[in-house]
Design a protein that fits this description.
4-stranded antiparallel β-sheet; alpha+beta; 422 residues; 9 strands; 17 helices
């Protein structure tokens, strides 16, 4: 049972189950923790006015019960409030998911057409229509502001025939979501979105036999690939309407803070944060996408690998903020439940990071679930088999013969809302 207490009343040994704000707005990486040190107490007092303590999970139960007695909280009253809150969250998530998806799909399709047109113009030596790019970014910002989870779900649509265009659109969505998480104002969001959308435009000048080579590139071939940031920059700088900040992103999205990047070998603070925001989104989407020369990584494996290199590539703090942004179970992750069922994460839950909204795709017998069902792991009531719905681990879709991109495409075409799994 939970009790709301002032942070000044929190003591070492108590279990903090919830904060007075979303977890992503706090420095705590995981939802729910035992207060172990004075530093934990100071952090809570710096970020929160009150928190919710779980008496069962706390080591000092007597102190928690004393607080309950003083505040007049009873077990029945507390559980009743929890059920009401859970029901409100559940209803909102289930009813709005596909409605938001249908709306975002229209914007996504128009944006995809626009990016493909930019690359075709680049190949043909034509100038880029800046106004078209501005329209794409404006629609993406609106979509992400309305529902960031829906926008991130759309990045799972991967068309191998339009791989570079899809990558640029995905990076723009990811970078905008990340910049919004960091609190960027609208004008800076536009620059980040524009730079991300056009960051790989210079790839249009790379020969297909190099771009799609199955094996390792030779040194000469890699030098050709390394020209693409400057090639894109040189074409786009002739267009006066493109902001300097966006041009900076196009030119420098492969720079790394330890100086190992290209084309200029910049180091540390010489690489603006906005550039590194796009660089992180670029690497994440690349690592989680299928390529002719390697298999796609799971979102969680990609984040782990990126975090290990964060100090050298982007800066540890910024990388950790990206992990907070996309969640412990990033949207598009295939998860194995403790029951043996499989689900795809379609929406993160800032209030319960370990319990996202999932789309159930296979039951515990390995059978496809059709029509697919939405399951909100955060709101399954006690006594309804909640342990069976817990996430066991993230798994590789290829190991289970699951095509996340195909599922995303199918869901965009489904007109009816699936019923909640119970």
């Amino acid at each position: 049972m939970r009790i709301k207490v002032d942070v000044e009343q929190v003591r070492i040994g108590m279990y903090v189950a919830a904060l007075d704000r979303p977890w992503l707005e706090s420095p705590f990486l995981f939802q729910g923790f035992v207060v172990e040190t004075e530093e934990d107490l100071e952090s809570l007092r710096s970020y929160c006015n009150y928190v919710f303590i779980d008496d069962v999970k706390s080591r000092d139960n007597d102190e928690v019960r004393r607080l309950m007695s003083e505040t007049g909280v009873t077990a029945d009253a507390s559980k009743s409030r929890d059920r009401q809150t859970a029901e409100r969250i559940r209803q909102g998530s289930i009813e709005s998911f596909r409605e938001n998806l249908r709306s975002a799909t229209q914007s996504f399709r128009k944006s995809t057409d626009g990016v493909i047109r930019f690359f075709n113009d680049m190949r043909l030596g034509k100038s880029i229509e800046t106004e078209d790019a501005k329209v794409v970014i404006s629609e993406l910002i609106t979509t992400i502001s309305s529902n960031v989870n829906t926008a991130l779900w759309l990045t799972n649509l991967r068309n191998q025939h339009e791989a570079t265009a899809s990558h640029c659109l995905n990076v723009s969505i990811l970078a905008l979501a990340f910049a919004r998480h960091l609190g960027y104002p609208h004008a800076e969001l536009e620059e980040v979105g524009m730079g991300a959308l056009l960051h790989d435009l210079g790839i249009a000048r790379v020969p297909n036999n190099v771009l799609n080579k199955p094996g390792n590139l030779t040194e000469e071939e890699f030098e050709i690939v390394k020209k693409h940031p400057r090639d894109g920059f040189n074409v786009l700088k002739l267009t006066r309407e493109i902001p300097q900040g966006a041009l900076d992103i196009v030119l420098r999205h492969h720079e790394r803070v330890n100086g190992s990047g290209y084309p200029e070998g910049l180091k540390g603070e010489d690489i603006r944060e906005a550039v590194r925001v796009v660089a992180i989104a670029d690497m994440y989407d690349s690592m989680t996408s299928e390529r002719v020369y390697r298999k796609a990584m799971t979102p969680q494996d990609a984040l782990t690998a990126m975090h290990k290199r964060a100090e050298a590539d982007f800066g540890k703090r910024l990388m950790e903020e990206f992990i907070k942004c996309v969640g412990i179970y990033p949207i598009g992750s295939l998860v194995l439940l403790t029951s043996g069922a499989l689900g795809v994460v379609v929406s993160s839950n800032p209030e319960a990071r370990l319990k996202p909204l999932i789309l159930l795709v296979r039951d515990d017998q390995g059978r496809d679930v059709m029509p697919r069902k939405l399951v909100n792991l955060a709101t399954l009531a006690e006594g309804r088999g909640a342990p069976d719905w817990a996430i066991s681990r993230v798994v590789n879709p290829a190991d289970y013969g699951v095509d996340i991109s195909a599922i995303a495409a199918e869901e965009m075409r489904v007109p009816e809302v699936a019923r909640e799994a119970t």
